[in-house]
């Protein structure tokens, strides 16, 4: 699993947190602030918010993937210099599975998605099957791995 964790991080990588929230007691807030505190370019994904922790929120991951495929920026996010996208999921498995479906509907998605991190509680076998079906299972971190526990080692092993 450490090789996937190392590959999740990259020098010019863009990151997204699906399930980011303003609620300071939830992991969607704690993990988003982890990225911010590590000066990593992160896009919070939440369909109900406009801004979290000073970051412009995108309502779904699909426009983010499309912008990266087309080498475009989004309002509040400079994406054109990114070498790809690593996505962390904090959503219930049903939403995670639907998000993977949305990602796979973008032509060229497989060229920009560099990593998927399924936080504990965000995946089930159907999610893992969907990641396999769309050809991203080799880029997926799961097995109850938490970025708040293993992220430091991942950054270090990626020389960031």
Automatic annotation (TrEMBL):
- SUPFAM superfamilies reported in the protein's UniProt record: NAD(P)-binding Rossmann-fold domains (SSF51735)
Q: Where would I find the CoA-binding domain in this sequence?
A: 13-151
Superkingdom per UniProt: Eukaryota
Matching entries from InterPro entries are given as: CoA-bd, NAD(P)-bd_dom_sf
- Give the coiled coil ranges: none
Q: What is this protein called?
A: CoA-binding domain-containing protein
